[in-house]
């Protein structure tokens, strides 16, 4: 390709950049048979230029690389809990990525009478974005979506706490250092609550429009031609998720861009133009989606467009997630109003699929469009397909679209006459075949619900379109206060009737989200006891922390309790603080140096045990680290020892709470030398093969040991005694476990959850007088979450519905969530 002609001014700039690229080893001289032209493009907002090559021909010969790129919305979905944000921008990102030597000749270009080829990735190559994104994804693969997002050379770090954020920044910086990638410090922002990213402003509260884009639209003059109008509409479209019903508002403007439409700018177009500018200037903030809360989808349709609004309601206010809108084509505009309403539902649910797919949500629309949809016949194939598409969604028609003030007997009569089930009964009446037990009065159908043939109890027959309202009015309102199934059904039976009403009441109450979150279950708790029998000493060890305690006279503030699960041999170790480092040091000096490494180590979910430092310590020593489920302390056998130890400490304090560490070693001796009810032996006997001597034993000259003729005989006897003790202890442990299981399971019931089940998790709130919060008034459960994996009959891994891992839970803290679905038709 021939070099482009250029001015002396730009030729000088090209030569300067060539020299700079040669110095920085970005390019090198070339003798390639390939050659592209080069030219300069100005950098936005500056007086600087960037040298680029015209790679159109080489791109036409290059295979595509469809490596996935993150969308902005997929990034925003993960930022709900983020309070601190940092943004990193790489220095000439592409120029930090080397090209394989055999591929360099294809990048050759001519400039200043010479030929060069790129050593580093140039701008303009077809696969450059995919290759660069692949490299960055490979570097950060295990942390993307956890606290990092990468879009080419823009790195976003997000965290919930400041300390966590500092750690995340350190991790990212270390990865960049190892990959030999550098950032532009003048374009990096650290520890902010608000950063500019991909054309928007991300804050700890949500996403805002970029002030530069708002200003550009505010100052945009009224268009004089189609080209200027299309530019304005393109700018507005970039912010379409901030603007309600943009397509409908922009219809007068969009119409002017169509072919064969004469350009004529009237007051109608000017008003639409100004209205869009006002909407964009509103400063509206979009909230990050909270996948632990229910979504609400409001839809609407006009003569020329459809639109939707996705929002959530929690914390006493509405959280707007996004708007969507689309223009209707000529065929769609000719459809009826209810058909267009259905089109709006189909469009909005499809647009917001990544939020709504597989989760219950509330649909706010004209209920008539839904009622009409359910009565479609097979004659209208297209509309029937629409109905099938909508049935995949777990939506709940919005009962609030009907208010108590709107319900009159005239409204009931109208809805009855639009209901196919009622119509069938009315048609029989017209042919003098009215079904027994029904009557028509003032055009309204009634049903006799009396069981006494001598007495009639007439109730209004409720059509499908009003049933959700009736269920809501006799369950959700304060005057009914979420009655149970039987009481609610009794109340409804006194007032209304429809076929299958008891079943609908049962379904409605069981799927009521507030009932599931707030009500105490009157059944036996779920989850039977499951026990594993330890096989030998120091095979499985339990760990726990009593912390914090008042600083003792010796400078200690906590206690580390270590218990062997087989012998129940105990180590009680005072700690100067509750950090992972302190615990690791004491384990290394006081435990591993004496007894060696255990095979399994079980701890709770305290921050000191789940830290990377503690996990690395266990991995280095080939110890398998296990965690108990949160809020299931009975799974950690140290809990019982903690309670006993705390009682012993209290007995010897003598009112001085700084003396709690004086007798810890004495208490440890007491634990180790006392016969255990479960095993039938003292922990020392099972652990060492001998009893521990007490001071009194020396006074009374109690030996407890017989003499042997030889050392060999002594060793043999000790081995036999140890084997016998271990066998007996194992039998005693099994017997005791069975007894405990039988006692425990009498007050429990079995339960099983399956993969992908939706569940609620029991809450454990703490009252806070300063914040005027009482745990007695808080929800008993939160969610819903989704079952990810079944670890055992009683332990499950769960996550949010959007795919964020939330850890493991015992089944006793879980309750199956029943989402609400539309009534059967």
Low-confidence stretches: 374-379
Beta-strand portion reads 15-25%
**So what's the overall shape?**
flat
Number of domains: 6
Secondary structure class reads: alpha+beta
User: What fold name goes in the CATH topology slot of the largest domain?
Assistant: Alpha-Beta Plaits
Write the layout of secondary structure elements.
Elements (H helix, E strand, L loop, with lengths): L7 H16 L3 E3 L8 E5 L6 E5 L2 H5 L11 H5 L7 E6 L19 E3 L2 E5 L9 H12 L8 E4 L2 E6 L2 H17 L10 E4 L1 E4 L2 E4 L3 E3 L1 H8 L7 H13 L7 H4 L1 H6 L10 H14 L14 E7 L3 E10 L2 E11 L2 H4 L3 H15 L1 H4 L4 E4 L2 H8 L6 H10 L4 E3 L11 H9 L2 H11 L7 E4 L2 E5 L9 E4 L2 H10 L11 H9 L2 E2 L3 H10 L2 H6 L21 E7 L11 E7 L5 E6 L4 H16 L4 E4 L3 H4 L1 H9 L3 E4 L10 H14 L12 H10 L9 H6 L6 H6 L10 H35 L12 E5 L18 E10 L4 E5 L5 E6 L3 E3 L9
Parallel strand pairs: 13-16, 16-17, 20-21, 22-25, 25-26
Antiparallel strand pairs: 1-6, 2-3, 4-8, 4-9, 5-6, 7-8, 10-11, 11-12, 13-14, 14-15, 18-19, 19-20, 22-23, 23-24, 27-28, 27-31, 28-29, 29-30
Helix pairs in contact: 12-14, 12-15, 19-20
């Amino acid at each position: 390709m021939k070099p482009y002609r250029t001015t002396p001014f730009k030729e000088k700039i090209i030569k300067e950049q060539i020299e700079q690229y040669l110095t920085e080893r970005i390019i090198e001289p070339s003798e390639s048979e390939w050659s592209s032209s080069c030219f300069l493009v100005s950098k936005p907002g500056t007086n600087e230029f960037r040298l680029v090559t015209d790679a159109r021909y080489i791109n036409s010969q290059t295979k595509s690389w469809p490596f996935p790129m993150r969308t902005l919305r997929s990034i925003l979905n993960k930022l709900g809990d983020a309070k601190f944000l940092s943004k990193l921008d790489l220095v000439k990102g592409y120029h930090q990525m080397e090209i394989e030597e055999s591929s360099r000749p294809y990048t050759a270009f001519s400039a200043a009478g010479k030929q060069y080829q790129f050593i580093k990735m140039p701008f303009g190559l077809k696969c450059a974005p995919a290759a660069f994104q692949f490299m960055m994804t490979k570097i950060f693969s295990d942390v993307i979506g956890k606290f990092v997002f990468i879009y080419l050379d823009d790195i976003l770090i997000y965290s919930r706490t400041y300390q966590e954020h500092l750690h995340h920044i350190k991790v990212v910086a270390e990865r960049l250092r190892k990959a030999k990638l550098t950032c532009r410090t003048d374009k990096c922002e650290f520890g902010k609550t608000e950063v500019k990213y991909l054309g928007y402003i991300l804050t700890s509260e949500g996403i805002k429009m970029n002030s530069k884009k708002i200003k550009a639209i505010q100052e945009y003059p009224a268009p004089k031609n189609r080209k200027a109008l299309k530019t304005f509409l393109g700018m507005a479209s970039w912010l379409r998720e901030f603007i309600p019903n943009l397509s409908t508002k922009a219809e007068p403007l969009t119409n002017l861009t169509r072919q064969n439409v004469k350009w004529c700018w009237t007051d109608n177009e000017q008003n639409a133009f100004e209205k869009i500018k006002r909407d964009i200037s509103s400063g509206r903030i979009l909230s990050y989606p909270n996948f632990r809360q229910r979504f609400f989808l409001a839809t609407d349709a006009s003569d020329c467009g459809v639109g939707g609004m996705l929002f959530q309601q929690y914390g006493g206010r509405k959280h707007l997630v996004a708007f969507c809108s689309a223009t209707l084509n000529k065929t769609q505009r000719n459809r009826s109003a209810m058909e267009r309403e259905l089109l709006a539902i189909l469009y909005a649910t499809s647009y917001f699929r990544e939020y709504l797919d597989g989760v219950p949500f509330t649909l706010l629309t004209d209920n008539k469009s839904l009622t009409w949809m359910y009565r479609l016949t097979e004659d209208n194939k297209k509309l029937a397909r629409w109905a099938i598409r909508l049935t995949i969604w777990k939506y709940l028609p919005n009962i609030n679209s009907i208010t108590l003030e709107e319900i009159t007997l005239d409204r009931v009569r109208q809805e009855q006459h639009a209901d196919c089930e009622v119509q069938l009964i009315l048609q029989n009446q017209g042919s003098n075949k009215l079904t027994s037990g029904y009557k028509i009065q003032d055009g309204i159908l009634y049903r006799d619900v009396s069981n006494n043939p001598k007495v009639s109890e007439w109730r209004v027959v409720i059509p499908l379109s009003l049933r959700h309202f009736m269920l809501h009015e006799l369950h959700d309102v304060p005057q009914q206060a979420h009655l149970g199934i039987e009481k609610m059904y009794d109340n409804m039976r006194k007032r209304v009737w429809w076929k299958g009403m008891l079943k609908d009441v049962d379904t409605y109450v069981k799927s009521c989200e507030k009932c599931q979150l707030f009500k105490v279950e009157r059944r036996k708790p779920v989850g039977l006891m499951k026990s594993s029998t330890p096989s030998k000493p120091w095979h499985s060890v339990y760990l726990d922390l009593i912390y914090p305690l008042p600083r003792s006279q010796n400078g200690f503030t906590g206690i580390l309790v270590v218990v062997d699960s087989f012998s129940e041999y105990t180590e009680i170790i005072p700690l100067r603080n509750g950090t992972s480092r302190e615990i690791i040091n004491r384990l290394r000096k006081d435990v591993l140096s004496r007894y060696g490494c255990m095979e399994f180590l079980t701890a709770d979910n305290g921050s000191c045990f789940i830290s990377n430092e503690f996990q690395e310590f266990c991995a280095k020593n080939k110890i398998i680290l296990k965690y108990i489920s949160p809020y299931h302390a009975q799974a950690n056998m140290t809990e019982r020892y903690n309670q006993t130890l705390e009682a012993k400490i209290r007995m010897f304090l003598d009112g001085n709470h700084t003396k709690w560490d004086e007798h810890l070693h004495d208490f440890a001796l007491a634990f180790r030398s006392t016969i255990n009810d479960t095993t039938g032996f003292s922990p020392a006997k099972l652990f060492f093969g001998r009893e521990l001597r007490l001071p009194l034993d020396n006074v009374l000259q109690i030996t407890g040991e017989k003499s042997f003729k030889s050392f060999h005989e002594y060793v043999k006897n000790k081995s036999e005694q140890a084997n016998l003790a271990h066998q007996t202890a194992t039998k005693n442990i099994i017997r005791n476990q069975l007894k405990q299981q039988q006692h425990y399971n009498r007050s429990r019931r079995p339960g099983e959850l399956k993969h992908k089940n939706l569940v609620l998790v029991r809450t454990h709130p703490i009252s806070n007088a300063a914040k005027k919060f009482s745990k007695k008034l808080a929800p008993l459960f939160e969610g819903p979450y989704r079952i990810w994996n079944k670890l055992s009959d009683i332990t499950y891994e769960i996550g949010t519905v959007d795919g964020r891992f939330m850890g493991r839970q015992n089944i006793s803290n879980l309750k199956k969530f029943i989402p609400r679905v539309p009534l059967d038709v």
